[in-house]
Automatic annotation (TrEMBL), chains A, B:
This is Gamma-glutamyl phosphate reductase. Belongs to the gamma-glutamyl phosphate reductase family. GO terms for cellular component: cytoplasm. Pathway: Amino-acid biosynthesis; L-proline biosynthesis; L-glutamate 5-semialdehyde from L-glutamate: step 2/2. Residues 13-287 form the Aldehyde dehydrogenase domain. InterPro entries: Ald_DH/histidinol_DH, Ald_DH_C, Ald_DH_N, Aldehyde_DH_dom, G-glutamylP_reductase_CS, Glu-5-SA_DH, GPR_dom. Its main location: cytoplasm. It comes from Paracoccus litorisediminis.
Length: 423, 423
């Protein structure tokens, strides 16, 4: 890893950024067919270059093993035939989505004789900063291209060879479709100064999407001078209301915590209405215990055998593991107050048969996703019907919730008159 | 003007921001009726406190005259009965608009059994920084309140007394409607350090809207660590294509330049297709000259008697005056290239009867507003049917074009299942 000075890094990103801007102009005008062809061509090229990608991945794995990466990080870095096929399938799935650019988002006529349309346009240039998961190279590029945006990719340093090999295949697709090669660029260095330069590249990069753990996302959110689509943590709550249906509640709580514990939509805190507890007892907690979950319980709940007493820090914590915090509350208002204080604005679910109580929960909370009688594990672009997602955003500017190709667009107004002048 | 230290200023803004966040929680849940009542109450209070507002304005006018403000700035600062009535009418007009919060922006069903709604929510806390135009105090507060946002207002230092008197009336409206007084706050100091503190108040303020000239907007865009909705300049182009209708072209060009020259939607550059010029000659330029416009013409156009030869700096310049740059181009492609190079992304209009040429202009340019056979002077939220506007944005994130109450909202997803779990 050679040492780039800040000036070198800024110059490198300025070069990539300028090329990306130029490419973005062409991409904004590219037909849906052409972008589709580039994605299909890239998928074919990934399959055709399987051996080259695997060879590059061996270099990365050796480098990473020498560096002493953990087994789970090595696993994420490793590619095999089936993971390469999955990347190609991902490109084809994005290709098959409707083209988001040029959609008429709204249109209306005005008494002044004007016809006004609001039409979707690409955002411009997207920077994606991710960890050593080579598949993100293909996934992120596909969504950016579909939405007519140029992209600058900066993967984890251990995956550089793999990412370069995948990038070559993506460029083959672009070339075959007659789109500029600079539509998809990879930062060609492991030097971290390049990340800092990306984060301050105002005017060259329109938005940065970080993909990875809290360390990476936190760094990007703190340092970026460019807008960021991200969530720092997914501290998702499930609230079992006094008017919940017992069987639905049992099913949803168990799924929300245990289906997959490592994803941001996994539940980290269970709030139980005292009314529910008085009627049904320990059943929700017992289900979790039976499934092998460590339940960190507060107050009366801590009397349930098998639970662990909760520490104050267990509330507002993202465990990403078979652990959940649990607490009794006095109805939906206390649940709302708890979530406002401890939530991260990602996803919360209420279990209730009462329309009024659900409406209160939906109105008073302002997380990106609020659910009723559904598992927080559904917080996912695919499950929402958006096709692939580049991430989930908890900010309130522009994109919020799952960020798919549609959310990577802006809009412009097209106004038609017949010689109309303003009086 | 006492001297605030940076620490003092940050503490002041933190205090206002914290109160605003608290108020924003209540506002997000406030019914449309309650917000309506607050706006009507504020309008009534403005009329009722006319004398107090006029008295405060006299203090400001004296202070400003001593400071040596220009006559045009003094005029903007001055209030009289009719301007006070106009403010009250503005509040009533915003009150009469549909409530933008809670609108269902999209909804759909998923094969997994989920029903998904995307629903409009307030952004949170808006900071408005403006010059010494006291009416902005009422206008900006009205749009923020309508869209359920708390607002922190920072007007020009010369207008502080007037703004405080108007602010009192707005607070009366809030109080009568039972909404928190901190929904609308005024920065209670002339010290400029408070502006710097507003611009760096990440986490407290969700978006800053600057209203004023290029100096103010440029400062805000450079310094803000918070998102900004703004346009720096309105360098609007009109392109008369070879397929333009002569009479429509004459009408639109004259209106686009001369109706009002001081607004951002006023045309600053006329591009004439050589085909149009060959057929119709100097007519468009002659109309402008006859109306008293200084035409800074390039190439052959400079041979038209009465024109002034254009300097290179005349292209890409916002004159805001009875001046226009003019140039011949070879068809729509050269017009597009010129606008990409010199435009500010605000508003451009093509004059043509050719659908294909108009489509090319609409597709290849990416200004916030593109028009066909219509005057650029229509670039205005009121003309677009949005009611009042807080400004026009040329960025591509979140809001673009006229920023009305709708554009001051974000959204959240409401997901309903019936015990749905993810497999």
């Amino acid at each position: 890893m050679k040492d780039l000075t800040q000036t070198d890094a800024d110059a490198l990103i300025a070069k990539l950024g300028t090329a990306a801007r130029e490419a973005a102009l062409a991409l904004a005008e590219a037909s849906a067919e052409r972008k589709h062809a580039a994605l299909i061509g890239a998928a074919d090229a990934i399959i055709a270059s399987e051996q080259a990608i695997l060879d590059a991945n061996v270099l990365d794995m050796d480098f990473a093993a020498e560096k002493g990466l953990s087994p789970s990080m090595l696993d994420r870095l490793k590619l095999d035939s089936s993971r390469i096929r999955a990347m190609a399938d991902g490109l084809r799935a994005v290709a098959a989505q409707p083209d988001p650019v040029g959609r008429i988002l709204a249109e209306w006529d005005r008494p002044n004789g004007l016809h006004i349309q609001r039409v979707a346009t690409p955002l411009g240039v997207i920077g994606v900063i991710y960890e050593s998961r080579p598949n993100v190279t293909a996934d992120a590029a596909a969504l950016a291209l579909k939405s007519g945006n140029a992209v600058i990719l900066r993967g984890g340093s251990e995956s550089l060879n793999s990412s370069e090999a995948i990038h070559q295949a993506l460029v083959t697709g672009l070339r075959q479709a007659g789109l500029p090669e600079a539509s998809i660029q990879l930062v060609p260095t492991r030097d971290r100064e390049a990340v800092a330069a990306l984060l301050r590249a105002q005017g060259l990069i329109d938005v940065i999407v970080p993909r990875g753990g809290k360390g990476l996302v936190g760094l990007v959110q703190r340092e970026a001078r460019v807008p960021v689509f991200a969530h720092l943590e997914g501290i998702c709550h499930v609230y079992a209301d006094g008017d919940a249906d017992l069987e639905k509640a049992r099913r949803v709580v168990l799924n929300a915590k245990t289906r997959r514990t490592g994803i941001c939509g996994s539940a980290e805190c269970l709030l139980i209405d005292r009314k529910f507890y008085a009627q049904h007892g320990a059943v929700l907690v017992q289900d979790l215990l039976d499934a092998g979950v460590e339940v960190r319980a507060e107050g009366e709940l801590a009397e349930i055998p098998g639970t662990v007493p909760a520490q104050p820090t267990d509330f507002g914590q993202e465990f990403l593991d078979m652990i959940i915090a649990a607490k009794l509350v006095d109805g939906v208002d206390e649940a709302i107050a708890h979530i406002r204080r401890y939530g991260s604005g990602h996803t919360e679910s209420i279990l209730t048969e009462s329309d009024a109580t659900a409406a209160r929960f939906f109105k008073s909370l302002d997380s990106a996703i609020l659910m009723r009688n559904a598992s927080t594990q559904f917080a996912d672009g695919g499950e929402f019907g958006m096709g692939a997602e580049i991430g989930i955003a908890t900010g309130k500017m522009h994109a919020r919730g799952p960020v798919g190709a549609e959310q990577l667009t802006s809009f412009k107004y097209l106004v038609t008159g017949d010689g109309a002048i303003r009086s």
